[in-house]
Predict the 3D structure of the following.
Amino acid sequence: MKFTRRDVIRTSAGVAAGLVGSQLIGRPAFAQDALSFKPEEGASLRLLRWSPFVQGDEDAWLANTKRFTDATGVQVRVDKESWEDIRPKAAVAANVGSGPDLMLVWFDDAHQYPDKLLDVSDIGEYLGAKYGGWYDGPKGYATRDGKFIGLPVAAIGNAIVYRDSWVKEAGFSEFPKDTAGFLELCKAMQKIGHPAGFTHGHGVGDGNNYAHWLLWSHGGMMVDEGGKVVINSPETLKSIEYAMELYKTFIPGTESWLDVNNNRAFLAGELGIIANGISAYRTAQINKDNDPKLTEIAKDIRTTNLPIGPVGKSVELHQTTVGVIFNYTPYPNAAKAYLQFMFEEAQMSDWIKGSLGYCCQTLKGFANNPIWTEDANAAAYSRASETLRPNGFAGPLGYASAATMADYVLVDMYAEAVTGAATPQEAMEKAEKRANRYYRV
């Protein structure tokens, strides 16, 4: 059973369309409240966003966009790019001053070019006051010097996805909650032919999520509160040694994986444990081609949060996407009206539900969406925005934190060590040197 990228992202279209469509009946087309922007005469917009891994996310987003056009007359062209291409496309647009009017960018990328972005503090403050406030982590990605340079659209939760029957076959009645037990489980899973696999490649989401969890769970940090690079530490060394032991239990090839690869291998039955968004489960659950193997996999899938390490508490990075408006747009009012519209309750609730738990709300007022309780496997993703630790920890977010992540400094440190390309000490020292190119205190 082989899976292409098309197979992975072609998830839940019919179900999501039904969910969204059922909620449109009797709803007024456009109801903005205290804040309102009048689009410019003849305005049209172009939004560039990331390709979906859960089709219902895109379907609901496009349905909401159509509502906006129907209500305002503003045509919105929605284009998409692969996850890995979003960051360079945004940087080029910001630097040359042309391209899409709006983009959905990653993590703290907006902090690399804040002067190129429209100040949307009026929308950010309005939405926060109306919908219970923003979660701190996502808000930090979208604010700088007290101003909103974008709006945090969603946190894409990352959790353990595993085959329950295989975990039991390996001798574990329940999934381990700490890193020591987790390592023992991975060893046992490898022995019975159902290994684990975690991304050591340049996966924007999966590679970064895994690397940051490795570091933080052992008490390591890239920088301290003052922004001084402190990656060269005994805690980091322990995390590298742990990663090396885990890597020995992995399916081959994880050092070259991008975001799609672990989904593909897991759904093909090649391995039994991955760290991923809920997309892997939803693909098997929806099973549009009625593949009996996928049906069985879906029944056997369970999800849980990543194990707790020596630091003694849950510390996870969840991929956050931020909606930004470039200040070169000729239609700033239309762009602001569009962003506000997409965050209002009628649209946001539909989108969260349409994404089937893939996109976690960034405004506290949407936390009770029924999608989080309709399926037990959604629970591990329901608090992603609330619990995420920003990648710049423990220092401030800014150009340095964004550039260090964009350069995959932390991801490469672990990859070089686990593959034997460098000793743990050499890998750590190289990461320190690379990070210091961006952090100049």
